[in-house]
Amino acid sequence: MVGAEMPTNSDLIKWEEQGRLHTKFEGVTTASADAGNVATFTLAGDGTNAAEFCNFRVGQTVMLSDGTAASTASNKAIITAVTVGSGTTAGTFTVSYYEAAGQAVGMLASANIIVYVYGSEFNKGANGMSGSLEADPVIKDNKPIIIKDKYVVSGSDMAQIGWVEVTSENGASGYLWYIKSEHETRLRFDDYLEMAMIEGVPAAAGSGVAALAAGGQLGNQGTKGLFHEIENNGNVWSGGNPAALADFDAIIQRLDKQGAIQENVMFVNREFGFDIDDMLAAQNSYGAGGTSYGLFDNDEEMALNLGFSGFKRGYEFYKSDWKYLNDATLRGGIVGGAVNGVLVPAGSTNVYDQVMGKNAKRPFLHVRYRASETEDRRYKTWMTGSAGGAATSDLDAMEVNFLSERALCTLGANNFFIFKD
Questions:
Q1: 3-state secondary structure string across the chain
Q2: Average pLDDT of the chain to the nearest whole number
Q3: CA–CA separation, 351 vs 363, rounded Å?
Q4: Residues 6+ apart with CB under 8 A from 128
Q5: Which domains can be identified in the chain, with CATH numbers?
Q6: Cα–Cα distance measured from residue 176 to residue 162, given in angstroms and rounded to the nearest whole number
Q7: Which end of the chain is more exposed for a tag (fewer CB within 10 A), N or C?
Q8: SS (H, E, C) 338-364
Q9: What is the pTM assigned to this prediction?
């Protein structure tokens, strides 16, 4: 799933993601009467948590909309005064309306007025705009973890030859000796490298892991895996799989509010994959509801083979069965904490790499492994002991050691989806 890898020489990976260019406030309220020509609005804030601060400026023109369902109330206005706010005190702004009818009916009662700036207006010979806005990048970070494994076989067992015909999980077949167990250890370690990047969580303050000795044998920091990042900074679909076009319309509308990445890949379990196939198979050959079979060269027979690899509806969605979610020895069949799939944007994004000190183009999902000119910890394996050609100690055995130090970087997590029951 994670094919992109690149080195890092730091034990802390930090990057900046660009924030939104424009500001839109939701949950704004007013105590000013409807039909008035002037009104003051207060940004959201509960008086306990940090309240929203107002970055509007005098002279800017704004669009105000009542966010209440089925409401038609809206206004255009110019800002005449601003109070930024501080601490738990929310910011406020005062406007004068362009409409002769004044404040639209319904604004006073609304608990969710939506406001954004669309321009400004000044008189001839007036001074310039007061104040300026500074960029507000979002700083993200992650820490690599050290993953280890080992296979041990005694010198005596190495001398006891016994061939076994095998076919391994990666497709290799033939006759193996004690190397079969070593081979399976390597395969498990390869799986751990990916699963740790998917399932990893940071050690929360006050947790048992955080209480482990800093200089001890076990790690006490954790790492931010894919599921953790999406659940905390991305989009969570719960309550069953999206199995209808209306469900995907809701996903598309959500993507519109985020980065609007054109191509997206869905890694799904078997049930979710069948749900998508059934949904697409139910569409007629003319593309009911705007569905396009462009991914199938517009061939009806090719599209309706009931094994869809993708479809286009506003965005392009590609589907891939994810073995990890189907494997009965891993996530397949679990109930609590079950995940049915994830949606990952395809391509790259521009970020500011704080370690490198410059802008860089990085895949949305990639692994950073620890490396320098003298040490590469992407995938290390070495032998110790006194058997099998090793001569590093008096241990009558061969030890095959595996090590990797890595972290997953999930860039633009707001463009990702995780699908849960």
A1: CCCCEEEECCCCEEEEECCCCCCEEEEEEECCCCCCCEEEEECCCCCCCCCCCCCCCCCEEEEEEECCCCCCCEEEEEEEEEECCECCECCEEEEEECCCCCCCCCCCCCCCEEEEEEEECCCCCCCCCCCCCCCCCEEEEECCEEEEEEEEEEHHHHHCCCCEEEECCCCCEEEECCHHHHHHHHHHHHHHHHHHHHHCCECCCCCCCCCCCCCCCCCCCECCCHHHHHHHHCEEECCCCCCCHHHHHHHHHHHHCCCCCCEEEEEECHHHHHHHHHHHHCCCCCCHHHCECHHHCCCHHHHCCCCCCEEEECEEEEEEECHHHHCCCCCCCCCCCCEEEEEEECCEEEEEECCCCEEEEEECEEEEEEECCCCECCCEEEEEECCCCCCCCCCCEEEEEEEEEEEEEECCHHHCEEEEC
A2: 87
A3: 10
A4: none
A5: 1-19+138-421 (no CATH), 22-134 (2.40.30)
A6: 8
A7: C
A8: CEEEEEEECCEEEEEECCCCEEEEEEC
A9: 0.81
